[in-house]
């Protein structure tokens, strides 16, 4: 596995984990899905455990139930991350856009969309999303890690292009 692929997997995995309830560095922005929508909660847990197909399926079912805009946005952000992990980037992008539309203050959705853009080689868009996330959560270790990964992917791509041109 080349460094760009390894870095991208790390970015996607960080995105999934960061969108789940925890006592991480940004407790005020943590996505908390309570027992009101058990399918969204179970989907998030499955994604965190690496059971991506199950997590996607449960989250899709959970999104069919009445939920707050915040929970719906979190569900779409989690779906985005799940679809990134299975490399369905068009689906991932749709869910990230929906999440941001529902809750533009969810920095995790910007981070997840940056993972999509990075996977597609759209580094400027990826960097713009990480910067948007950092405006919302300037101390996020996840976003700072993503920023470094995207820059490294961008540099690797530039080096490959230069080698091919030489």
What does the model show?
This protein has eight helices and no strands. The chain has one domain (3-165): Alpha Horseshoe (Serine Threonine Protein Phosphatase 5, Tetratricopeptide repeat). It is mainly alpha-helical and 166 residues long. The two termini are 24 Å apart.
Outline of this structure?
With 166 residues, this protein is mainly alpha-helical. 73% of the residues lie in helices and 0% in strands.
Q: Which helices and strands appear, and what pairs or packs with what?
A:
Elements: H1 3-18, H2 38-48, H3 52-62, H4 69-85, H5 89-102, H6 107-119, H7 123-136, H8 141-165
Helix pairs in contact: 1-4, 1-6, 1-8, 2-3, 2-4, 3-4, 4-5, 4-6, 5-6, 6-7, 6-8, 7-8
| Strand residues, percent | under 5%
From the 3D coordinates, which CATH architecture would you assign? Alpha Horseshoe
* Number of H/I helices: 8
The CATH class designation is: Mainly Alpha
Number of domains: 1
Radius of gyration: 15 Å
Fourth-level CATH superfamily? Tetratricopeptide repeat domain
Provide tags for this entry.
single chain; about 170 residues; about 75% helix
């Amino acid at each position: 596995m080349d460094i760009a692929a390894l870095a991208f997997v790390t970015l996607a995995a960080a995105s999934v984990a960061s969108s789940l309830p925890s006592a991480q560095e940004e407790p005020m922005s943590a996505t908390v899905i309570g027992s009101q929508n058990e399918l969204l909660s179970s989907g998030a847990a499955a994604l965190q455990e690496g059971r991506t197909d199950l997590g996607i399926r449960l989250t899709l079912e959970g999104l069919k139930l009445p939920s707050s805009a915040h929970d719906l946005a979190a569900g779409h952000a989690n779906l985005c991350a799940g679809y990134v992990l299975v490399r369905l980037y068009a689906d991932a992008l749709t869910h990230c856009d929906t999440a941001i539309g529902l809750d533009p203050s969810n920095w995790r959705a910007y981070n997840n969309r940056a993972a999509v853009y990075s996977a597609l080689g759209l580094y400027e868009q990826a960097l713009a999303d990480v910067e948007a996330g950092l405006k919302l959560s300037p101390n996020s270790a996840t976003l700072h890690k993503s920023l470094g990964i995207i820059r490294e992917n961008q540099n690797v791509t530039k080096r490959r292009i230069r080698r091919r041109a030489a």
